[in-house]
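Morning - magnesium ion inputs below, output right after.
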Amino acid sequence: MKITLSILKADVGSIGGHTKPSDRMLDSVRSDVAAAIGRGLLIDAYVGHTGDDICIIASHTRGENDTEVHQFAWTSFLNATAIATEYGLYGAGQDLLVDAPSGNIRGAGPAVAEIEFEHDPVKTNPIRPAESFMVLAADKCGPGAYNLPMFLGFADPMYCGGLMLPRVGEGFTFNIIDMDNTDGDSLISLNAPEDYYKITVLLRDNERFAIESIVSRYSGETAAAISATRMHNIAGTYTGKDDPVALVRNQGIFPAPEELISPYTKAHYIGGDARGSHVMPLMPVPINTAVTGMYCLPLVSCVGFSLNRDGKFSDSSADFFDNPAWDYVRQIAQEKGIAMRSQGWSGAAMLPYGELEYSGFRTSIGNLVDRFAIRNGKESSAIPEKAGTADD
Ligand code: 13P
Ligand code: 13P
Ligand code: MG
Ligand code: MG
Ligand code: MG
Ligand code: MG
């Protein structure tokens, strides 16, 4: 049978600032999920949060971009928004950027990552005798937060020794999206290892290019799907950070979990943090972690599940970053964060103007640019008007 795994995540309000959703909001989404399982729309589901983003991880048989599954998630997020509004929480409904999407909710604000695959572990899919997968959810992060760690996990034997084995070693196709092309989804497919350098040319730009999916060249099966959208391209202005999710199948013909998560030991610098305007390290954290540390460090969680023959999740999940080994990396991330912030607003510590122009920084900068005058008396050319006055 074909099974679809759907990850649907939204920030619809948080307590005491942009920290975490309230218990009632999470209870509401969990009870909506239980009802959807009860009426047979979903086979199974898990609900958790990373920072202020609520993530639904669901299995079903309806395929990717299914209207009913997406509408169910949208309604659950709306119900949680109503609770956030009732209690006066910060940013109620923040990621629900359009009024009422009619079909699937891609491009409407919530982060979506889905994979449909043949799931009959014993009979029809002998190369996949057991289905295991991981879900990464980020908060306070720009859209290309996974570019470097996903590339290293799927293309570099320094991180993934499995690439030296026959099947994994046939390599992976990286489907990369140009998030700045607003005419439609603009994609390129590049193969690792032969296109290794070309892939890096694109993935170095985390704000414009992002991996959308990764496909096994051995079997043609999708190994990973990543939500890759720029919120400000949907809203036209800054409405919060993109906070992408990723769904990654592991083991066997795909990299093993440790091969996929070892690149997170870098705590690499990405765009995000406070007001979505800084360059700060990505800190791996347990699921259900609030953003309450110093600064507003970009966070990523990673939970793993197995799937039984009927598409039900294992009775419990594995929380990959909830392990003392990652305390050491969290320490490194904190040190890198302090080092970067010691340089305050200067140069590389903050995102370049092209990113900030969607936020209130545009107004602050534009107002001053307007006042520039050329020494010989000619007027300076001001930055053209564009939406963007939000200041958070
Ligand atoms: P186990 O013996 O614990 O299954 O580990 C095997 C392995 O290959 C780890 O990648
Ligand atoms: P969120 O996208 O998590 O709301 O974060 C946005 C932000 O601006 C943090 O200061
Ligand atoms: Mg928020
Ligand atoms: Mg968020
Ligand atoms: Mg966000
Ligand atoms: Mg084992």
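Note: The first strand starts at residue 2 and ends at 10.

O.
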